[in-house]
């Protein structure tokens, strides 16, 4: 088996079936320079030679734009004949009309949870873990690919829950056949901590954040082994299997200014060393290796070898400088809406009120972790207030919308006061609701410190917001079909901030 690692969670697997035929499976599709909906950058950048690229199957794990890339999918289905079979999880079935509209003449297979699909004598199995907490990765489908001798499993963009059901599910998966090697691609996502460092205002604060993260990460890794002694003594650990291998990959989305790369909080090589040290402490003898981006990796007989440069790339530009917490790069915030056109505020107000009452209110009334009842009880005025600014930064006015125990829904507050729980620009919410802005664009906004932005968090919920996701992908597939680039979508003010 060969794995061509393209960075982030994107890679191409080349695996032989029983007839010694090579089957090529692309896992996720974000290969553009930017995440189109939140305007963050992809490092490294790459250039594909489509005349050399062969893909039989494309697997899409979930509907986040750093995994599902309309611009690259449009290029693939234009340039590669015969066209790849598109495998999508059942959690993404609502997007099938868009795939059929913009990627014509392709075959689509719907993947059912915990079922195996056989493609030319290669078994492809999917698992969607059931979490007992709210997460914006709820619709992620993890993936296993195997022939009679080799297994590859990737958790993609989620962490299997800490329960017996998940542990046993993975163990059954890894012991279905008499494998010579079984590779677990463990995904690390340090984005929240990296942005804590970027948002920090001093080198001292950065050092404290780095220390806290490394301590927390070491504790997380240690628990992965400790749990089998204390919490799950009756469960078998896949990491004790004699043919088990572990490979680390990054989920890495970064600020477009390359100086931000010096603020990497933990490199993959460091992560591998921490993992290896802790694994040995618990008598686990498997190999933990970090993937090398832009390289083809050969897996054979419980061994991993970096083989060569990826054959179908014309260019692979990687910038991976040494960490330097003293760099003078600090985040420049935008304290105005990304789109400053003056919209019809009456129409905007109706959209925002509808969103507050039909999406936000039911979501947080029943949210057991962070519910609206407790937020109201802890407020000074026994209300939950969302402040909205209309028009633009040069000429704007504010409206407060509140919910309380004596009201049935959010409504406009007719009296003035200074207390509010969270605040937004109407234009930013308008862009999001119409499918042309991403929740993560709050990286670029100045949000009030120490406030909890529940509306923005609610908009992460894919199942609640499938209508918005549908608009988003229709918008960007249409752009891609018209030969417009990802970069042309980025607002000028973002480019100005970066430069």
Number of helices: 12
> Helix proportion of residues, in percent?
25-40%
- CATH top level class name of the largest domain: Alpha Beta
Question: Unreliable segments (pLDDT under 50, ≥5 consecutive)?
Answer: none
Cross-sheet strand order for the largest sheet: 9-8-7-3-2-1-17-18
Radius of gyration: 24 Å
Outline, from the CA principal axes?
Answer: globular
What structural category do the secondary elements indicate? alpha/beta
- Our estimate of the beta-strand percent is 15-25%
Number of domains: 2
Number of strands: 23
Biggest sheet layout:
8 strands, mixed
Please name the fourth-level CATH homologous superfamily of the largest domain: Ribonuclease Z/Hydroxyacylglutathione hydrolase-like
Going by CATH, the architecture of the largest domain would be: 4-Layer Sandwich
Give the N-to-C terminal Cα separation.
Answer: 43 Å
Looking at CATH, which topology of the largest domain would you report?
Metallo-beta-lactamase, Chain A
Mean pLDDT: 88
Task: Describe, in plain words, how this protein is organized in 3D.
- This protein has helices at 70-79, 96-102, 164-174, 191-199, 203-230, 268-281, 345-365, 372-377, 426-433, 454-458, 466-481, 492-498, and strands at 2-5, 11-16, 22-27, 34-35, 40-41, 45-48, 57-59, 85-89, 108-111, 116-119, 122-127, 142-146, 150-154, 181-189, 244-251, 287-290, 295-299, 304-309, 313-317, 383-392, 395-404, 411-412, 422-425.
- The chain folds into 2 domains: 2-317, 4-Layer Sandwich (Metallo-beta-lactamase, Chain A); 345-498, no CATH class.
- Helices cover 28% and strands 24% of the residues.
- The chain is globular, with a radius of gyration of 24 Å.
- With 499 residues, it is an alpha/beta fold.
